[in-house]
Design a protein that fits this description.
The protein is α/β, with parallel strands linked by helices and 382 residues long. The protein contains 15 helices and twelve strands. InterPro entries: Glyco_trans_4-like_N.
């Protein structure tokens, strides 16, 4: 089976959605598929810095590429919002027997609704340009791609429900297939109880409002004021350390460590001395950082977004708090700080819960989906 995986990002193992795309491709190759990729490096060769304009142009670049090469592939698996010009033009150049799959790494509509809700409550600021593209035309593009594709792959039930109920995509055209854990996160040793000392908190993800930045800052200040001894390390902020530190109260800054970036495969080693993951995200398609931190032996304190409701079971594998509820976030951390035995038990259970999320299994499910779609198209052409 010949597969093209296309995504509106530079292809890099150390980036979220692109890293997942490469991992899926390798796993499909291990299943016997031939896999090619198309990303920003192909659409915009030689360009190192990308803006919203590149995202706007990408569907047209991709469509021109597909018109030239689509006949080589059985399956065209393309991120949402990107294949609609080609599909609306009648899929020029495609083989008679082929399948067009659109893949969401987090449905833009649900993210947009949460962002608008945060803005109404004064928790986020939206640029005047937001409704023009990300909060406007881009949402139309995504809806078009969902309706025009043969099938859509989503990451969580909330996104699937939105596609069914709000975008009127038939349930038969939707599948929920999660991400898998990379090899670096599989078979890690059980976490050892840490020596007495401050509670070791960590975040993993970019230092932006959607990831709960303001909630983490406020919670850290309150925990310090309440006399909770802790350290907080922020991994993968994508923001320089001085800027991150300056966002926290001066009293908290001595307890911070900032790691703006890291090689993805080194994350388990970085997290080996941490205990609790703060994951107060306001919107997620999946939340790979959550699953990877659990696999590394951290107990999560998470909002119920993305994959969290499926893997974070309160009192068993972690704790859930409402989106934007700093009081609940502080209370959860205090409870974990006060009970080391329960904290360690939750760490062990969290790690065990995600061990079954492997790329070979995800690739087998994905290939099965592809084969079913191709068989259906064959039957429909008879």
């Amino acid at each position: 089976m010949r597969v093209l995986l296309a995504i509106h990002h530079p292809l890099s193992q150390d980036l979220g959605a692109p890293g997942v795309t490469l991992a899926l491709g390798r796993a499909l190759q291990a299943q016997g598929c031939t896999v090619d990729y198309y990303g920003y490096g192909d659409a915009f060769p030689g360009e190192q810095h990308h803006t919203a304009l590149h995202n706007l142009r990408f569907p047209w670049k991709l469509s021109a590429h597909l018109a030239r090469v689509a006949r080589r592939y059985d399956v065209l698996d393309v991120t949402t919002g990107d294949a609609w010009p080609w599909a609306r033009a009648g899929r020029p150049g495609a083989a008679r027997r082929h399948a067009l799959v659109t893949r969401s790494h987090g449905l833009e509509h649900t993210v947009s609704e949460q962002l608008r809700a945060d803005a109404r409550e004064g928790k986020a600021r939206l640029s005047w340009k937001y409704p023009l593209y990300n909060g406007g035309f881009r949402l139309w593009e995504v809806a078009q791609s969902l309706r025009l594709a043969d099938h859509a792959v989503l990451l969580n039930e909330a996104d699937a429900a939105y596609a069914r109920e709000r975008l009127r995509v038939a349930a038969s055209k939707l599948s929920i297939i999660p991400h898998g854990l990379g090899e670096a996160f599989q078979g890690l040793p059980l976490p050892e109880p840490l020596a007495e000392g401050p509670l070791r908190l960590a975040t993993v993800g970019t230092f932006i409002q959607r990831k709960g930045r303001e909630d983490v800052i406020a919670a850290a200040g309150r925990l310090h004021a309440l006399g909770v001894a802790f350290t907080l390390t922020l991994y993968g902020t994508g923001t320089p350390e001085p800027e991150v530190r300056a966002a926290f109260p001066p009293s908290v800054q001595p307890h911070l460590r900032v790691v703006p970036g890291y090689a993805h495969a080194t994350l388990p080693g970085l997290l080996a001395r941490e205990e609790v993951l703060l994951f107060p995200s306001h919107a997620e398609g999946y939340g790979m950082a959550l699953v990877e931190a659990m696999a590394s032996g951290l107990v999560p304190v998470s909002t119920p977004v993305g994959v969290a409701p499926s893997v974070v079971h309160p009192g068993h594998t972690g704790l859930l708090v409402p989106v934007g509820d700093v009081d609940a976030l502080v209370a959860a951390v205090r409870a974990l700080a006060a009970d080391p035995l329960q904290r360690y038990a939750l760490r062990r259970e969290a790690q065990a819960r995600v061990q079954g999320l492997t790329w070979p299994d995800i690739a087998a499910r994905t290939r099965g989906l592809y084969e079913g779609l191709l068989d259906a198209r064959t039957a429909g052409s008879k």
